[in-house]
Amino acid sequence: MPGETFTPYGPSHAAVLVVLAVLAWWLVRRGQAARGTRAANRLSTGFAIVFLTLTLPLQVYFNLPGRFALGLSLPIQLCDLAWLAAIHALLTRRRWSAALTYYWGLTLSIQPILTPDLDAEFPDPAFVLYWSMHGLTVVAAVFLTWGLGIRPGWDSYRVAVTATAVWAAVVFAFNAATGTNYGFLNAKPDSASLLDLFGPWPWYVVVETVLIAAVWALVTWPWTRQPAPERPAAHDTRRTGPG
């Protein structure tokens, strides 16, 4: 309600988690039933349109003069890029954007869902944007992978690692030029965080990079051990890279 503060694992958080879980289950069931057909494409495109309708106007709203802050507002965090990758993957079913949605969505965007850093309570626009962006990105990753059958492989892994390395280099340079700290690439957060366990800069960046690469390898390996699906999703034959 207006004026109230969001409480992690309070009523609104629990409600959002239930909605996201039910939505993911429903989309996976529908996607599996229609896999490889125009109906699956329509379902995916419809999801993308709803996703954009919920998030794009609010992104514009929070970047209007008076609300914009250089160090906070630019959509250049990896979770922001995961949102864009998810929209692209839902609209096109391309393997490269589905790969980014899988790795960024299921290992990065899921963290703000489980450990939310949010003050605004429903129906504040900040609440709606936060949960729409993070929550629907994770749902999109689940739908694309288990619903449409766009499975990751080692080619997908290479795409995600390369794209993340390019992002880190560009954002690091941007931070250095503007005095910002997107991605905590140039300095640790002021408050205590898990990064404190990884040593001083730049070593915590190195440790974090190695851990992410290892986790992504672990969530890739099981898919490479399974036979290909009998009915691949539309455009699922497009490769993400050499392999």
TrEMBL record:
Transmembrane regions listed in the UniProt entry: 12-28, 40-62, 68-91, 98-115, 127-148, 160-181, 201-221
Assigned keywords, A-Z: Membrane, Transmembrane, Transmembrane helix
Pfam families, per the entry: TMEM164 (PF14808)
Coiled-coil segments: none
Family annotation (InterPro entries): CHP02206_TP0381
Keyword rRNA-binding: no
Keyword Transcription (UniProt): no
Domain of life where this protein originates: Bacteria
NCBIfam families, per database record: intg_mem_TP0381
UniProt protein name: TIGR02206 family membrane protein
Annotated source species: Jiangella anatolica
